[in-house]
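User: Here's a protein and a ligand (pyridoxal-5'-phosphate). What would the complex look like?
Assistant: Let me lay out the input and then the predicted complex.
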Amino acid sequence: MTPGSSPAVRRLDEWDADRLERLADAHDTPLYVMDHDRIRENVARFTGAFDFAHVMYAAKANTGRAVIRAVHEAGLDVECAAAGELHRALEAGVAPQDLQYTAVNPPDRDLDYAVDLWESTPELTVTAGAPMTLDRLEARGFDGRLAIRVNPGIGTGHHEKVATGKDAKFGVPYDRVEEVVADARERFDLVGLHAHVGSGVLADDLADHRRALERVAAVAERVGDLEFVDLGGGFGVPYRPDEDPLDLEAVAAMVADVTADVDATVALEPGRYLVADAGVLLTRVNTIKETAGARVVGVDASLSTMIRPAMFDAYHHVHNVTGAEREPVAASVGGPLCTSADVFCTDRPIPRPEAGDLLAIGNVGAYGIDLASQFHSQPRPAEVAIDGDDARLTRRRETFADLTRLEDEAPGLE
Ligand SMILES: *Cc1c(COP(=O)(O)O)cnc(C)c1O
């Protein structure tokens, strides 16, 4: 199968169970597993569908060095929405001219970093979403490539916390874009407009998404003389087993149609779409408790390991790798933290989990390990990359010593 023809969806039970058991035995749990072949397939499918666009990887979905490298080696430039992401992309070996920086309420230290980088790399494009950010860039001597982030006033996505398109925090209000662009043209090399309107967009959201993009395209036509119009990311993946994958060809046709009269390159910044289904989280069952309502299944992963269910009410499929053939029972799977938010699923039919079983939680390659914390003094998990038959540790498991390291190094605590 050529990469471009890879299936648009990869379900959790398609992962090789024996391999997952071996990885868990070798590296312990909880463990993130990233399949780099799948990342490359996703990149190829996306760039195949959007062959008219400049596609960049939005690094915040997964900023791991190995992941950034895999995506960059597959041919994509990297969109960074924080100076720390620029730093991590550079550390991953991405050439500075392959980076773009989008500033959202940028702290001084972030702007300083970006302007320093621009001084040696004039190809760097900086995207700003507030007039004051233009002043702060100018005050640092920046007069380089600039894009203005537009707030189209319409947001889309899987959860209100990610529907950025109508949130006043993001971008220049729609009716002020032309004025801000005119001002920016006096001071910078104005090369583009930018909009990122939401995340996790699936078929049901496409009509809204189209309306948002139409507004961006309309203002792009009005301001004219642009090198690119960047329509952001937001391409959704099916988290539930019965959800259909996004019809990329249809979305590409929609984007091409909406931008038909825009005389500029279309740029896109998918994050989630490229990496979500390339990742699984392996976790071991440690405790079983029978209650009247459900089988309560205690595992060694927690909301500190993967917070999306607690933070976004996100559905993540849970698969019993060890006992896939058993009869399903209603199971509530949760971690070791003392908060009722620490559950991955409630009363969900899962092949009867037993103590010692290995469970896999699907679609965690995006916004998984990057949102992991040490809350409740949980050392953060390890990550393994699989690449063909090869497997390598790409992030070591934290130890208890890592929990206290920053205090150990602070002078105030002898
Ligand atoms: C988060 C983000 C993206 C990527 O969003 P996905 O939903 O992961 O595709 C793209 N552009 C910007 C500016 C972002 O902040």
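Summary: The longest strand covers residues 279-290.
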